[in-house]
Amino acid sequence: MPVAVEKACQEGAGQVMSGAAETLARCCKPSTRLVILSGSGMSAESGIPTFRDAQTGLWSRFRPEDLATPEAFARDPERVWRWYEHRRDGVRAARPHAGHRALVDLETRVARLTIVTQNVDGLHQRSGSQRVLELHGNMLRSICSVSRKPISETWLSTAEDVPPRSPHASEGLARPDVVWFGESLPEHAFHEAVGEVNNCDVCIAVGTSALVQPAASLPMIAREAGALLAEINPVPTPLSDHVDVFLREPAGRALTQLLSIMQAMPG
Prior knowledge:
The protein is of the alpha/beta class. Helix content is about 40%, strand content about 15%. The protein has a six-stranded parallel β-sheet with strand order 3-2-1-7-8-9, sandwiched between helices. It has a three-stranded antiparallel β-sheet with strand order 5-4-6.
């Protein structure tokens, strides 16, 4: 890890305020370039079901894999659209939690904070975070199934078809602006994320399963580039054995604790 960060962590480890949160807080200096990698555990604390837990009620007889693919949309676009409308209702009703808000404050305490998220709910942006890279898209946005151009909410609100016809292509339909099974991540977002983890001082994986590729490769890219690697998760993941600091707590509690310690530190 960078010399300055390593020194700060070593100093933190020897102080009376011991523990993972204190050690991590001492590594997040005003000059720190910090990357947060957020996953479904972050959103679950706002009441948004994880992808595989989203099958309830009417949708319990379907597997997510049978609905979140280009093939499923081609077979039955109405079914897929209605499933996403069901999920969108839950996302619209959800609110950012204390962990989201802590990250907004943390932005003002480090040189650069970038959130790289696998979540598709937009809660980071709704909480006020300024620099968010969405690796898997955003389910509250819609695009044309043919041209991939964005479709406005104004157009969707006046459409009568389910799903709405696209204004951009005669054969196109509106579809969620998310990455489905079998599709590649947005090239620009992923390349930008790789650049951020390659050049950060501290990288914190928050609420990620560390299983979904290629996003799961990002923490190790950061570690190999010399960054301090931390994990916030109430349960161990495949990443846990490789991190420098592990806070085994939910995201909201751990991030507010981290911020509180940083606020209490002398200038």
